[in-house]
Specification:
The protein is α+β, with helices and mostly antiparallel strands. It has helices spanning 12-23, 43-48, 67-78, 88-100, 103-115, 123-144, 157-162, 180-190, 198-201, and strands spanning 3-7, 28-32, 56-59, 62-65. It has a 4-stranded mixed sheet, covered by helices on one side. The longest helix has 22 residues, at 123-144. Bound molecules: glutathione.
Length: 210
């Protein structure tokens, strides 16, 4: 049975899972979640994921949620994007960091700054969260300075997680000029065979709502 990923193009969390499957050569198909019209709040979707979040992975009666869990499932099935055992904890450290401080904060800030109607954008929350996002980008920049990949000497799930929101055009305070080590690392990931931009990999694009 083909694996399905319930996802939408604007979701960097879904991109982490979609990119991992694609680069690992895993057969999968997207199922569009119409997030901007309440698609993650319907009874059917909540039956699939009580957390009301995309992405959701389904295959052969197995349902997985949480992007890092889906990434780990694919890596364990394919043997791809896992570091040597001695570096496994280091990779997990960055997956947890990303879920809280990286993707976890960038997604919310990008949503507030770009996808809420302009008159509903909360200036004080945006100011506070921007500070948090800048600090986390600084952590990532320092870690990548002098390194090729996040963990060890080959790409792992940590790379495919921490890049989740960094290819999108909608502004949330990340610029390649301000973070040159991150920029060079993004280019290295984008040069991996089969890489695709999130808007190419998953259905749904801000232009659909223009
Ligand atoms: N920690 C989750 C975050 C997933 C998440 O927040 N997804 C967003 C879309 S990018 C969502 O569905 N949000 C709905 C909500 O927060 O209620 C993961 O890594 O999968």
């Amino acid at each position: 049975m083909t694996a399905h990923l319930h996802c939408f193009g604007e979701s960097g969390n879904a991109y982490k899972a979609a990119l991992t499957m694609t680069l690992a050569g895993y057969s999968w198909q997207p199922v569009f979640v119409d997030f901007f019209h309440g698609g993650s709040r319907t009874p059917d979707f909540l039956a699939l994921n009580e957390m009301g979040e995309a992405p959701v992975f389904t295959e052969d009666g197995l349902t997985l949620t949480q992007s890092c869990v889906i990434q780990l499932h694919i890596a364990e099935k394919t043997g791809k994007f896992l570091p040597p055992p001695a570096l496994r904890a280091e990779m997990m450290r960055w997956l947890f960091w990303d879920a809280q401080k990286g993707t976890g904060q960038q997604g919310g800030l990008r949503f507030l700054m770009n996808f809420l109607p302009e008159d509903k954008r909360p200036a004080e929350a945006i100011r506070w969260l921007s500070g948090r996002v800048q600090a986390a980008l600084g952590t990532l920049e320092r870690h990548l300075t002098g390194r090729t990949w996040m963990v060890g000497d080959a790409p792992t799930l940590a790379d495919l997680a921490c890049c989740g929101y960094l290819y999108y055009p909608e502004p949330f305070g990340f610029s390649r000029e301000a973070f040159p080590a991150i920029a060079a690392w993004l280019d290295r990931i984008a040069a991996l065979p089969g890489w695709k931009h999130p808007y190419e990999l998953m259905p749904g694009n801000p232009s659909d709502r223009a």
